[in-house]
User: What shape does this take?
Amino acid sequence: MSRPRLTVLAGPTAVGKGTVAAWIREHHPEVWLSVSATTRRPRPGEVDGVHYHFISGEEFADMVRRGEMLEWAVVHGRASYGTPRRPVEEALEQGMLPLLEIDLQGARQVRTSMPEARFVFLEPPSWQELEHRLEGRGTETEEERAVRLETAKVELAARDEFDVVIVNDDIRRAAEELVSWMGSH
Assistant: This one.
């Protein structure tokens, strides 16, 4: 059996990447989900080490300096996010089916550092639905939502950089399509 390849899931803000990944975590134990590190504060219900590794800006900068991040970026001009390299490499060595759920900047860095990875773009069924989801989260101020929507316009324009596009019109359906695609490619 050939060694599995890393699958990268990206898409615009509020498209539901985290929700799809959480559904996969709950229903597909054969998929190993990477846990990103971030300098942002936890949202309600998020658990350190499960949803993200919540770390200080200084600790994040040290990891970047030591080359311990597979990818990293400052997102929405605010917080830093990154993927610790070692757990991904260990998952691949152990023959697991690894999935990274990251932003567009990070996906582009992974394409450079790990070109054999596969790239999946998660898109909303419509722009109006994306706006509705972002507003419905209730986790950002009006100003933050405006910044995220501007970022989303740029992110949506990058869909052609990906190997496959999955529309997130239903969480379960989108998650199952992603897992099925991972297993067949």
Q: What stands out?
A: The longest strand covers residues 69-75. The chain has one domain: 7-184. The mean pLDDT is 91. The helical segments are 17-27, 57-65, 85-93, 104-113, 127-137, 142-156, 171-184.
